[in-house]
Amino acid sequence: MSSVTVRVPAKVNVQLSVGPLRDDGYHDLVNVFHAVSVFDEVIAKESESISVRVEGESADQVPVDDGNLAIQAARALAKHAGRTYGVELVIRKAIPVAGGMAGGSADAAGTLVACNELWGLGLPREDLMEIAADLGSDVPFSLLGGTAVGTGRGEQLAELLTGGRFHWVFAIADGGLSTARVYAECDRLRAALGEVVAWPQASDALLAALKAGDARALGAELANDLQPAALMLRASLARTLEAGRELGALGAIVSGSGPTCAFLAADEDQARELAVALVGAGVCRTAVPAHGPVEGASIV
Ligand code: C5P
Fold first, then answer.
1. pLDDT tens digits, one per residue of 17-53
2. Would the CA dihedral through 2, 77, 134, 61 be positive or negative?
3. Which residue(s) pair with 55 in the sheet?
4. Which of 261, 242, 264 is nearest to 164 (CA)?
């Protein structure tokens, strides 16, 4: 096999409850992940050494050295297999860079699946999930896809069956936000307000809405503890969220650590109209309709 192509989805967190800061610098979470139809493609080609090239929107903002999570994924997989392997990776980006939609994690997950195939390793998904968890908190979910409740730092996953399809619009901002910085701002805000940080719990009403495929109920239950921090760091997002609500979205939330904003729509037509209206209102760089859940990293 000389080339393998893998398609891997973005995610939105329909509930992101951030618990206390742990000794290892991470936070215990309840993180309800939902994979949506905004996809990066990872193409893995035979090569002597490990390299990456990034194409598509904002490609110039993605590092191509060891700071690239896909390079780290290829190295980690080769190490796990106990041999030296090479691969030329080409990443075609559609997921916004540093946008709170797990784009880097998606590329790492896609690389694991692609190299497992290219190198003929035949490792089972469980092995890939373990390597994924070491690479980043969101990488296991990018492999799994669908909808899942994440605990621990987000890497321990329980799959959730949902009823039907949800329709979303993602309002993409200019420039990204650093995840670590948003978590640090969340800690700072909580300390400044003297908040007692509760142990995170999954919302029963949210899980019921997902299971029932009830978009209206889900819209009312969307919750993200990182949102106040993201709004502190990027005040303009308040206007983006407000515009979506005024335009009739069933729910409006910052996606993960932002700055992408996610809007839930009643159906595909409303999502399409909402995307056009958000761009028209001048509250985002671009707006992308999508649906979920969709499957995780898969060979195409
Ligand atoms: O796991 P990952 O490398 O994607 O996390 C990026 C950063 O996000 C971490 O360095 C940490 O600052 C923050 N984080 C956190 N708690 C989590 C997940 C991420 O504080 N559960």
1. 999 999 999 999 999 999 999 999 999 999 999 999 9
2. negative
3. 92
4. 264
Residue 105 Cα to ligand 1 midpoint, Å, equals 12
Ligand 1 atom closest to residue 179's alpha carbon, by position in its atom list: 8
- Cis peptide leading into residue 293 (ω within 30°): yes
158 lines ligand 1 (CB under 6 A): no
pLDDT, mean of residues 2-13: 97
Q: Closest residue (by CA) to atom 9 of ligand 1?
A: 180
pLDDT on residue 179 = 96
Alpha-carbon gap, residue 64 to 123, rounded angstroms: 26
Cis (ω within 30 of 0) for the bond into 228?
Answer: no
pLDDT at 246: 98
Please give the distance, rounded to the nearest whole angstrom, from the Cα atom of residue 247 to the centre of ligand 1.
Answer: 33
Answer yes or no: is the C-beta of 26 below 6 A from any ligand 1 atom. Answer: yes
Q: Which of 21, 149, 153 to mutate to test the pocket of ligand 1 (most atoms within 8 A of CB)?
A: 153
Do the beta carbons of residue 119 and residue 85 sit within 8 Å? yes
The pTM of this model reads 0.97
